[in-house]
Prior knowledge:
Layout: E1 3-8, H1 11-28, E2 34-40, H2 49-59, H3 65-81, E3 90-97, E4 102-109, E5 113-117, E6 126-130, E7 135-142, H4 146-155, E8 158-165, E9 171-178
Parallel strand pairs: 1-2
Antiparallel strand pairs: 2-9, 3-4, 4-7, 5-6, 8-9
Helix pairs in contact: 1-4
Amino acid sequence: xxxxxxxxxxxxxxxxxxxxxxxxxxxxxxxxxxxxxxxxxxxxxxxxxxxxxxxxxxxxxxxxxxxxxxxxxxxxxxxxxxxxxxxxxxxxxxxxxxxxxxxxxxxxxxxxxxxxxxxxxxxxxxxxxxxxxxxxxxxxxxxxxxxxxxxxxxxxxxxxxxxxxxxxxxxxxxxxxxx
Length: 179
């Protein structure tokens, strides 16, 4: 029996299984193959304000680790492309988007400013104007239900064989087999 694991931090990962692998499944996946998919669940997020607050806090931690991670995209643009983002002029913002079932991370400009990106192999120099309060949407972290994981796997030619949940039902590890 062969298998592979997917730890899904986002819808894109499960869509990769569903869309990219589906056409290849008949040629590359054997009947005895399995897939293991790990996903964060959001079962209680629609009706539980405290659960949403805990989730937001996980992405906006008191030590500022996630904020530094988020601002690192600007650090890399400065270092690798010669941009001149002033990191102190951007604030880490976390938003729960219930319609898309995801946490969104943004960097919000705290002041009106202009950032320069020098000319490079991708194109000419650019001057980007930011108004105070304008954001750069940097990341999505999707949350799933057991049913949405099963639906995505089904669209890729898999069926759920078994789902394992943690004691708080915040995470799921799903074992699926070829249909």
